[in-house]
Amino acid sequence: MSFDAALSAHLQSGATTTCHAWAITRRDGLVMGFTDHDRDLSFGGVTFRADTGLSASALQQGTGLSVDNSEAIGALNDTALSEEDIEAGRFDGAEIVAWLVNWAAPEERQQVFRGTIGEMTRAAGAFRAELRGLSEVLNQPIGRVYRKPCGAVLGGAGCAVDLDQPGYRLEVEATEVTDLSTLRFPPLAGYAEGWFTHGRLEVRSGPAAGLMVPIKADRDTGEGREIELWTPLAASPGDGARYLLEAGCDKRFDTCGAKFDNILNYQGFPDIPGEDWLTVHPARSGGSGGGSRR
């Protein structure tokens, strides 16, 4: 008998022993299990803890392409969901799977929800998390914008740059962290000033390990390098933490060729006429042409 059939037979028996269980998989790979039963459950290689106070409101599901949604609420707990982890964004976009389970026979279960965690709010020692169904991605606009800058993500699909090549990433320890948005490093030999501008900083060790923030500016101070972040780190990295600096791309055609030798994969349109050319009156001179700039 399948899981679904066994649970269906149990529900039709009239005397049920069911509960809900949730498995959360964070983007850093950590898997956490929770249940609203009064005892821990285990199945699928995951232990679902009963002492978290996690529960969920009624699940709204529809046919077709409508967006399923639900909400999870619970108490903040240092050994489960801590306020520091939520503030640091460690649960943003985490995958969540929910089951209806016969706690007397956990092999009898039915998956009732699968999606991701959306907005999370916290107050008075509790949290509230929005659960987004798989059809949520259908709300995102899809299409290509015709513009001069490249539309690809550095190292992602369509770019073809291998960031694991020498020179594109550097792991180093900071000499000073001032206000969580400005970090100072020793001189970075072989990396020109501005090399990491528009790139990304990732904390590799310490209390903030796993946090990633885009880099706003990369300056040579004469005594070392100063990295300014677009947003402050959501948690203090502590002393002795190591950081991974990733090269940045300003999406320009010249940068794609000179810095990454990747012109063949450039995902922009460097020769497209600008707005000034599109609105100019016809003229016999060749100054208003939209010809190739190369």
Account of the protein in words:
- The longest helix is centred in the N-terminal third of the chain and has 9 residues, at 3-11.
- This protein has helices at residues 3-11, 83-87, 253-258, 275-279; strands at residues 18-25, 31-35, 41-43, 46-49, 55-56, 69-75, 95-102, 109-123, 126-133, 169-173, 176-177, 182-185, 200-203, 212-220, 225-229, 242-246.
- The protein has two domains: 3-139; 169-246, Elongation Factor Tu (Ef-tu), domain 3, CATH 2.40.30.290.
- With 294 residues, the protein is mostly beta strands.
- The strands form two sheets. A nine-stranded mixed β-sheet has the order 3-4-2-1-7-8-9-6-5. Strands 10-16-13-14-15-12-11 form a seven-stranded antiparallel β-sheet, with no helix packed on it.
- Residues 194-276 form the Bacteriophage phiJL001 Gp84 C-terminal domain.
